[in-house]
Known about the structure:
The chain is α/β, with parallel strands linked by helices. The protein is 32% helix and 17% strand.
Amino acid sequence: MDADVTDSPPPAPDHRAEDEPRPDTPTPPGPAGPTEPDAPGEQPDAPEPTEPTEPTGPGEPGAPDASDAGNRRHHWLRWTAVGVSLLVLAAAGTGWWFYNKLDGNIRTDTTAAAELERYEKERPPPGADNAQNLLLIGSDSRAGSNSRYGRDDGGSQRSDTTILLHLAADRKSATAVSLPRDLMADVPDCLRQDGTRTKVRFAQFNEAFEVGGAACTIRTVEKLTGIRVDHHMVVDFSGFKDMVDAVDGVEVCLKQPVDDRQAHLKLPAGRQTLHGEQALGFVRARHGFGDGSDTERMDRQQQFLGSLVRKVQSNGVLLNPTRLYPVLDAMTKSLTTDPGLNSLKDLYDLVRGMRGIPTDKVQFLTVPRKPYTYDTNRDELVQPDARTLFQQLRDDRPLQVAPAGAAEKDKGDGNAQRGTAEGSDGSPSDDKPDDPTSPSPAPTYPGSNAAVGMCG
Length: 456
């Protein structure tokens, strides 16, 4: 039988000179002497392996060479790059999570969109290019946690606050017009929640929201004003409270103490900062202030909104992510919008266009009205003042607001607040200047602006 054969490869041939000792052959001791240089073409002998030694300092025998230091430096840079990349990814992931959370808070009113599409031919044409009209509706639903503010009659929704907000095309001004809840108006046939439809009727304005929601309110506003509503937002009770808390309260000043049990509000006189529950009671209360009229409540709501706008701008909320996020979270949770404003990007574009508007150009007023002829507990429009106001907004032309006393000086005949603006039919008004080349001054209405707070 043949000898065992291993799989080991044959030893490599030794190319050393015959008289040159092999690596495994001991070198006989001899006197030390100068070493001869290697012959040309010959390779120097490989150093014999040595036992590992402790690291030494630079310049000492056995110190690591530059290549080792370079390797360590590259190793450190590589891990630093990996760490930075992970931080960037984590930040991006967190930002994406926040974005999705805020985006998911917003509810979309698809029913209103479908109803408005059905009546598209009846709606006013779009206004001036890039100008926008938003309808802001405060929801008074008593369902769920909101039942503390009144009797829960099955969760029916009410609206005591409706504001038509006009954003000028150049985004240099914003005008918020309050529409009284008791204003008598033509309410169209509307779709109820149960699928049935109402009949056309002349009724109190806020009945439109109660029976037909946002779509019915929008159609009523468009019929009343001739202004096309581009977008709408419905804000509920809880969301309003959270937004006020997110900006750390809003300052108000009271000439007299207030005690309104129905609004759950009891406040001393003087300057004070209101937070969620108190702020909500402040804008809702009627019986604890003055004559308890809806007129006085609307004025108070406008003043409070002006203070809120100023608080947001003065504290740099829009430029501070840590303060902006709570505001956005509270706002988006409270909103129900049309499909054109149902994303965080849409809302951001809207806010970005508004943040450059000076506070004195954020104006608040109430549509010109007076007690209704047949029921003094209701309101009707004052003409031609209301027509002039609506025409100014449709044409995206400027208007001015002033305290009630100052605005009275511009009435002219004791009724008109139109200044020297053209009439709603485009014809010149009686008090237009004789010089046709001189520009007509903007009409003046009783109101306020966000630069002047409740405390002066």
